[in-house]
């Protein structure tokens, strides 16, 4: 199995085994990598799985698609070698991949809205 090293925003490093055919994002989630939040579950619609890869690895993971570019336009701390991790499939070519997510984990907070009906006086 290929090994991928995740470097968290605080410098903590985790080298994990990645299942062939899964994605870099799924591998991060399976291994509790806090900086890869993946709010959309891998649908390429949130940019909370943003990562930074070394230039030598950028050629291996490939440039972002047009869909990814739209999401990257909404993200913070994007670098020229910052793809989303959700569309990157794990292959043997990724063995040794080191990626860093320098951003703090981003999360969407959903607020519960309670709607109450007015209490009418008894008639």
Write the SSE topology.
Blueprint: E1 3-7, E2 13-17, H1 24-30, E3 52-53, H2 55-61, H3 66-72, E4 97-100
Parallel strand pairs: 1-4
Antiparallel strand pairs: 1-2, 3-4
| Proportion of beta-strand residues | 5-15%
Structure summary, number of beta strands? 4
- Please give the count of helices: 3
How do the strands of the widest beta sheet line up side by side?
2-1-4-3
Number of domains: 1
Quaternary structure classification = single chain
The radius of gyration is: 19 Å
Largest β sheet strand count, sense and barrel closure: 4 strands, mixed
For the residues shown, what is the average pLDDT?
Answer: 80
State the name of the first-level CATH class: Alpha Beta
End-to-end span in angstroms? 73 Å
Looking at CATH, the homologous superfamily is: Beta-grasp domain
CATH architecture: Roll
What's the helix-strand series?
EEHEHHE
**Percentage of residues in helical conformation:** 10-25%
**So what's the overall shape?**
globular
CATH topology type: Ubiquitin-like (UB roll)
The secondary-structure class comes to: alpha+beta
Low-confidence stretches: 102-118
């Amino acid at each position: 199995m290929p090994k991928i090293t995740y470097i968290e925003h605080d410098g903590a490093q985790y080298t994990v085994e990645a299942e062939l055919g899964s994605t870099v994002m799924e591998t991060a989630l399976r291994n509790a990598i806090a900086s890869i939040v993946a709010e959309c579950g891998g649908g390429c619609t949130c940019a909370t799985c943003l990562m930074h890869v070394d230039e030598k690895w950028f050629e291996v993971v490939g440039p972002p698609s047009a869909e990814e570019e739209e999401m990257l336009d909404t993200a913070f701390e994007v670098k020229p070698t910052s793809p989303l991790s959700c569309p990157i499939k794990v292959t043997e070519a990724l063995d040794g991949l080191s990626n860093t997510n320098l951003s703090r984990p981003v999360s969407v907070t959903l607020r519960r809205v309670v709607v109450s009906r007015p209490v009418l006086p008894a008639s």
